Amino acid sequence: MFGFDGAALAVALVSQAAAMMPGPAPSVPEPVLEAIWVPPALARRTATLEPSGVVWARGLDRYLIVSDDTGSETDHHQPWLLAMSRSGAFDEAVVPLLGIDALNDAESICAGPEEGTFFIATSHSPNRKGRTPEARRMLLLTRLAGRALRVEGRVDLTTARDRGGAGLLQLAGLPADGRLDIEAITFHDGALLIGLKSPLSARNAAVVLRFQDPLAALRAGTIPPGAVTRAWEVALSEGGGIPRGIADLTTLPDGTLIVVANAPKGRTSDNGGAVFSLRDGGPAHLLHWFAHQRPEGATLAADGTSLIVVFDNHEKPPTWARLPLPATGAVKKSAGAR
């Protein structure tokens, strides 16, 4: 259980270590990591707070954050999300997820095409015991219902097949026995893009899948053959760094994609993470390298003027930062996720 209080958190500013890869131009201020304030009541009800995905929810005037685990040490798959204010403070009250009994290893959340809708993805990856229970294999369609999210549809992405019957990893062009880890989703150009943390391709690049017409599939509870296809792969090792997988995706209003990248589990790590920008199928351009930090989620800020990045610090207090928008990703001030 967390053992810190509001006063400690208020002064917990984490300075960045020396960059191991090229960062923003000198004229761009270095982003400052700040502790997310955790109300004592919230700290008492959850063993760990591990932000893994974030999106702005206009209807709540809050950032919705999914966490790897939710709840106590003995019951840490509770179906709820966290709500964070514009100033970086968690609400005392959680946001219930109505319609499911458990949420295991939630990794990403993004706005859907309809007002008040959000997609949520769990990792679909094996746990420490090598098992992948049902609550860990979910792509959810949800809608705001007061101060809760109600599940309107659900599928298991491992059931996706191409028109010839090939499974998810095969249609992704990856080894069928690879360790699947899904950590990123974003609605983009009429489809849901799915970014894989692992496995990487033969060229050590991360693979992005395209799920066409996801609303109909999730509401029907089944994925039609051929609905999920391989979109492209992208190398995320700019500057000679280690190969990385995709930890999160978000779409800016002009179509630019923001990619959060970290080393896949079980592969060589350099104890850091990066944020990139790219256009469909194009090369990734480094926005910022975070040494000795693990960025896990990113979204457009509520005012549309910057990116909000959240960090998973395991047992330590969670942190967040603002990152300048890419030069090619100019957005209107009024823009923001649903």
Any chance you could write out the topology, listing elements then pairs?
Layout: H1 6-10, E1 13-14, E2 33-35, H2 40-45, E3 51-57, E4 62-67, E5 80-84, E6 95-98, E7 106-111, E8 117-122, E9 139-145, E10 148-155, H3 168-171, E11 181-188, E12 191-198, E13 206-212, H4 214-220, E14 228-234, E15 245-251, E16 257-262, E17 272-278, E18 285-291, E19 295-300, E20 306-311, E21 319-324
Parallel strand pairs: 6-10
Antiparallel strand pairs: 1-2, 2-21, 3-4, 4-5, 5-6, 7-8, 8-9, 9-10, 11-12, 12-13, 13-14, 15-16, 16-17, 17-18, 19-20, 20-21
Short description:
This protein has helices at 6-10, 40-45, 168-171, 214-220; strands spanning 13-14, 33-35, 51-57, 62-67, 80-84, 95-98, 106-111, 117-122, 139-145, 148-155, 181-188, 191-198, 206-212, 228-234, 245-251, 257-262, 272-278, 285-291, 295-300, 306-311, 319-324. It is mostly beta strands.
Report on the architecture of this protein:
With 338 residues, the protein is mostly beta strands. The chain has a single domain, classed as Tachylectin-2, Chain A (5 Propeller), CATH 2.115.10. It is built from 4 helices and 21 strands. The longest helix has 7 residues, at 214-220.
Assign the CATH class: Mainly Beta
Quickly give the structural class. Answer: mainly beta
Give the spatial strand order of the biggest sheet.
3-4-5-6-10-9-8-7
Alpha plus pi helix count:
4
Share in helix: under 10%
Which blocks of ≥5 consecutive residues have pLDDT under 50? 1-27, 329-338
Number of strands: 21
- Strand % is 35-45%
Q: What is the string of helix and strand elements?
A: HEEHEEEEEEEEHEEEHEEEEEEEE
Distance between the termini: 33 Å
